[in-house]
Amino acid sequence: MLALRKIFEARRKRRNSTSPPVTSEGPKEDSNFPAATDDLGRAEQVFKSIKDIITRTTHYNEQTVEYTDLLSYLNFIAAKHITQMPSRGGHWYLILTKARFFGQQVYLFGQQVESCTAGGENLARAVLVCCQFLLETGYAHAAALLPIFITLSELATLLYAVRQVRDLEKMPIAIKENAVDILCDLANLTGSIVAHYSQKIASLGAGQSVVIDLHQSIGNQITNIWRVKQELYDQIWSHSLGKRYFSLSLSDLQKKLDSAPLDSMYRALSGEVTNSFEHSEVHCYWFSEILYSFLESNVQVLSITGPAGSGKSVMAKWLRDKLLTASDEKIYITLNFEFAADTPGAATALSCVKSLLTQLLECNVGNIALLEPVIIAYEDYAGHRSSEKLEASLWNALRTGLVATQQGSTPILIITDGDDGIVGGDRAAIAFHNALRTSTSNVPGVRIITFSRPESYLSNGCRHIRITDRDIQRDIRAYFDQILLKSEYFDKLSPKMRHDLVGELLENANGSFLWAFYAGRLLQSASLESYQKLKDSITSDISSVLQATVSENRLRSDDMLGTILSYMLVATRPLTVEEFSQLLAVNVPKRSMDKDAIDFAKWVPGRCGDLIIIWRGSLHFRSSIVRSYLLQQAGKTLCTLQDAHFKLMMRTLVYTRLHVRTDRDPTLVNLGDSIANEFAASYELLPYAVQSWVVHFREAGLVDSTGAVVMRTHEFMDIASIFPDTVTFAQLERAWLHRNHSVPDPIVLHHLAYKVREAIFGRVHITVLQSLITLGSAHRHTNTSNIDSLSYLIQAIRLAIALVSRTSVIVADCARLFLSWTENTRTTERTEIVTYREEVLGIMITIYRAKYGFHSDEVIHWLKELAQLYMDIREEERATPIRREVYEAIKTRHGEKSEEAREICRAFGAIDVVFTVGHDLCSLDVLIYNMDENEVVEKMNITMALQLAQSYMTRGKFSLADRVYLALWRQISVLCTDDSDIDVQTAKVQVMLAYVTFLRRMNRVREALDISVGFWVSNEDFDM
């Protein structure tokens, strides 16, 4: 058997990925496939290898490849439709539709590549021949071909998006190389499928099928094509931006817009394949005419409403596929959003506009006019932190982007489903519809179609269609005719009895597609003996068919199904197939992972496809009605919701403990994206586990109404025995918890995580320290409360001192951060923040004394900051000894007569000295007696000395006051001569008056008189 070469082995270093190992299940190595090259000539080399594969494995020759073009390919498919007349909605009809769309896109993309390098169009011809060969195997093997063409069709949407890039041929060489690589990789993939499946398909008998395992066989190649596309987009954005700079990078913007991970492409394809196999396509006969009438009219909004179960969600998917896979001239760009019942936290208008912008950016790579308003919206959000303002800005950005992208380009259709499920009810729905319509109003080429249940929020200016029983009867009848053909009982009935039976079922369905779906499946699988009894037990109520579908006997005999349904009911978001597989592999009693994991891509359609679907790689309930019914069964046929939360929490904690073993020191900075992404790539369930364990803890009844953690003894023992004790776990929480849509305020979860750690490990634990740091940063980031952020950070500092040491790195880092947060805090009274800052300044002084010495510039700086703090709050008695320390440090470091020392002396002149009894005043005393003759006459120094003397008098230390006055009088008397300037003369007068006043108070009148007379005599001829 021919198979696939590891085509990515020699790819340039930036690609750095390989094909999967050779197995009997997937393509093997084939030396005919060329290694990737770095030049534009790769297309011709790949064309030669694909042509060789075609001539060796099929009946086609080189001339077939040469003469095949898009027209001949489309004619071939049209002939298949005419000669085989496939039933609309059947597998073969779907295959031909997907094949036509893929062929169109690959050929047109080949022409675009041809403008960059020779060989692009030839390569597209070879791909068309490969598809034509697969189609020639015949509709008898439709089940084997369907997954192939669904895969290729989804990849065609990728090509269509790349085709929207304008002036690709004028782009730099690296960009054109990536475009060529996409076509070459897709051609290699198609050639390998032909080589691998040609023999298998040829050997299949009627009714046999091959279920493709995308992950094992071609998953890596699909993912690599997806990654190359992303590399192409990144390069185009970089080229378009040029030297323009935004504070927000493209990768950061994608995170803020909650873009889906790129490596989930094969997961999405897996869900598409599964869904196409396990459900019949809705024909939507009645809606086709309405749709075309709407698209040809001048009406911009079409609102479709209908009761629960009337097929609105299926119709929305049909609409997307219908418009996308039409002929190229009529293709619409579809922007889709669903207000999903199983992700209530994301069922908001903000989530919707984010999703629409993400899809629009994907279709308009390099369009700066679209990118700029989105980035500006988030730059503004960094300042105001208002979700309402952010949403309004993003709606405006959407309108700007639509206007910028709709200048002669492909028309855009915005499809929203489940609008009635928006968080906030009718009022939120009205606001959402108004915002959506305002953003698209009068933008040429943009239409809106909405699907919902109620009509109360509908307004004028749109066309409204109500789904009635009569509208969908034809579709439901077609479904019953198709599914009951497989029933043993139905096959034995006469044509009239069949018609009557279907009519009876139609009446009971009462316009509900969901009822028809379950009733049809139940009756299809019934035996001759049980058929009539089953039919009689089913009423027109949807609950009756659901009760028969999810019977107690079924759940009792299938524990795994009950577990999965319970977990899906309480999960904070739909889990992917890989996440669920790893979740169920967790063995809580053994604290280990079981080796045998469930392959959900096969398990779901085989065991519970009637209840669960795989969509975009994740498990979802088939309908919100199914979810609502199962919620009613919690505590009955299913375990209680609290038990489900507890069990899910235990599994996520064990999983985290097993996979987050390496530890790190506590830190203030976020865990790097590269580290977090490495964890996420290595352990698929880890992001969900880290984001959601605390939600499940709360919902498991372990938190009371006041927010306190309440665990019974056995619960505490169970949780404590498996709770991860690494700082890395707490750091991952900080990196990922804000992405959890189940709670609008992640601070609530951070706080609960902190309380849980404190309850389990005690107050003095390294992970509690990291949680405190995270809480401080989270409060600061959201601007919810300045005092809260500082309170958590001061607690972190105190705990770090207790855990490590006062001079440790983490204490220093926290202290510096605290001081930076409070550096602009100025107040005239002692507050809680001032007290915190006082404490942290003392810690910083201790740290720098230990690191640089008592007289270092760093110590002097923080001593000055502490003194200034006391000055600001008028606690001068505390500032004075700190100033003394500053003076002593400066004197030792710079010298007693240095400018720095004089500066600190001057600073003391500004102190309003009001000392309490018993306070040591030697600080100022020493400074005064160290003044030189030039300093003593300075205004601030005289004021300082006089204040000191007055303080001595207040305390009753008259001898010390006398000492100060005498020193001042002697110094000023020596300095003041007949030639002295006015400042010296004024200073002498000031000192004389103060000294005389003091002497008179001390009843030393004679001395006071002598000084006064002496002053008068020496200055009687002085002209002031």
Automatic annotation (TrEMBL):
Keywords: Repeat
Pfam families named among the record's database cross-references: NPHP3_N
Domain Nephrocystin 3-like N-terminal as annotated: residue spans: 297-453
Region Disordered, residue ranges: 12-36
PANTHER family from the UniProt entry: AMELOGENIN, NACHT DOMAIN PROTEIN (AFU_ORTHOLOGUE AFUA_1G01490)
Protein name: Nephrocystin 3-like N-terminal domain-containing protein
